[in-house]
Batch of 2 targets.
Target 1
Amino acid sequence: MTTQSTRIPPVTVPALHQMKADGRRISMLTCYDATFAFAMDHAGVDTVLVGDSLGMVVQGCDSTLPVTVDHIVYHAAAVARGLSRALLVADLPFLSYATPGRALDASRRLMGEGGAAMVKLEGAGPMLETIATLAQRDVPVCAHLGLTPQSVMKLGGFRVQGREAVAAQRLRADALAVQEAGADLLVLECVPRMLAAEITASLRIPTIGIGAGAQCDGQVLVMHDLLGLRGRHRTPRFVKDFLAESDSVEDAFAAYVAAVRDGSFPAQAHGFD
Ligand code: KIV
């Protein structure tokens, strides 16, 4: 007797590219433990990010800078145990990818010990060689442009990027450059919605927006923000509390997935001009 598997196929890197080609929006949420990962997976979240935001929302720090590779590996391994469908992305922490060699070592740990299917790193310019090195060694890379929280000391705070013409032009060029270096996905954080739409249309790889308008190929939120949890930090304007209109945490995750898919999240009020 043969048994038919009811297992839903896992989300893969080519599947994400196909979603962009088909115009199907991609949902991503940050996650830091197995129980929430299990609930997100069941709610249909496509990609789960063990972000270095864990420094702020889990560890209570003022920035993401104190997060280490050991921290991300620990949380990624826990999250991986909760997932069966969603693709697991893990952040390379501050300066853990300062050279291509260090990036390879840290990625080996995130993927080998943490179970990640993709690593995320911030920036273009000097990072292009690192992205190319990782991509040539078959490490799927998610680039991250716009507001890059690991640069907070240089930026002087968490604020919208790309509003001035010169900065907008640099962002357009950086987005193309990370794609050509081999990135498979691009997070755009706190970027004016028109600029994010333009960049999204110019790329083959999917863009995932956070505070970047509804025209990105997908959306990401920090889990605590989606659940309306207020910590020591100011709640950004691009956040929506999905738990407020839901009966359970899993329903809130499902409502987020549905709203990303049908384009009702983010609304105009969640974006920047
Ligand atoms: O660390 C993180 O949670 C992130 C998302 C905000 C994209 O990088």
Target 2
Amino acid sequence: MSFRPPKGTDDIGAPESNLWRDVLGEWERWADLFGYPLVATPIFEATELFERGVGSDTEVVTKQMYTFTDRGGRSLTLRPEGTAGVVRAFLDSGAKGPWKGSYSGPMFRHERPQAGRRRQFWQVGVEYLDVEGPAADAEVVELGYRFLTAVEIPGLDVVLNSLGDAVCRPGYVETLRGYLDAKREVLCDDSLSIVDVNPLRVLDCRVCAPVLADAPSMKDHLCESCADHYSQVKKSLEALEVPFVEDARLVRGLDYYTRTAFEYVATDLEAAQNAVGGGGRYDGLAESIGGRPAPGVGFALGVDRIVLASSREPAGRIDVYLVSESGPYEALIAASALRRDGLRVELDTEGRKVDTQFRAASRLGARAVVVLPAAGDDVDVRIGDERSGMPLGSVAKWLEGRL
Ligand code: AMP
């Protein structure tokens, strides 16, 4: 009998995982530069948290959650997204903001699997809480843009919209409802199934887009303070030199967004998987999960798709391959010394022939080779065309600046 990973899940190993590591390392760097410390929340939470936080009529909640009853009879769900858990953790901590948190980890949704759409997938994201001003929105959008640019997403677009708030959105939704009612005959089945519960979501449907070209736009219905917030966000992004395009149809799949909504799109990828991430402002979320009012803004980025889209060459993983003419015991001791000097070292623990060891060094892409001689004290260090004999203790210093 042999087992395969469950449908829609993957084993990710080298060499593919090398790019994953680079991308996740780059993520930590940018989250740090923008001042977002790590917040690690549980991978499963009370089911009700997601029903309330994500929205009980959203597709994620109605069709995609991995929900189970534990031995104590509680209903738990593997997190389908990160925001609800992070906002819960923030409220639970009793912290007073402005408060920042970043996360990185697997999420779970029972979706129909295809390239870039998995049942277990990895998201990185940030949440910025107890903040209302448009500068907060712009900072968050900028962070995602800088990170995605650093990991070389070709054809990256930031798509921006404002969804209004509790003051102006209900009126718009009514107008939209009237418009969509008259269009029922031309809507696809998916849109028909949500048009009554959540008409906004119909705007997101790619199939229906051509017949809804003249739909009323939220932009024309924003109240004064939402319109002002939106124009400040745009002004800030221009000043930060973060290019964006506006799209009045961008509504996002989750229910909690207010005002700013945005998506990062890798336009060079196929439409089905080109959304590498998105986010927005969610001023009502904290209250909808039973907390005090805490306006906030954040985003989530899909690492599986970022890795698919990235044109970055993974960085080499080995600085030195230690070729030993005297056997694995000596190699082990020497490798340990070089590693403690900060070099990434691979060696042959199996006592294979010297030729085989050289071949392994080149197969693994080692930057330098250090040959440990059968006799004598000095090692022979080779990098490119350069060769030099020296004591083992001098290797790290000599390689500094050459690697
Ligand atoms: P969402 O939480 O739905 O706003 O998704 C944010 C980002 O996570 C998307 O833009 C995708 O890059 C990624 N994502 C969402 N669902 C999946 C999935 N099933 N498989 C892979 N990536 C996903």
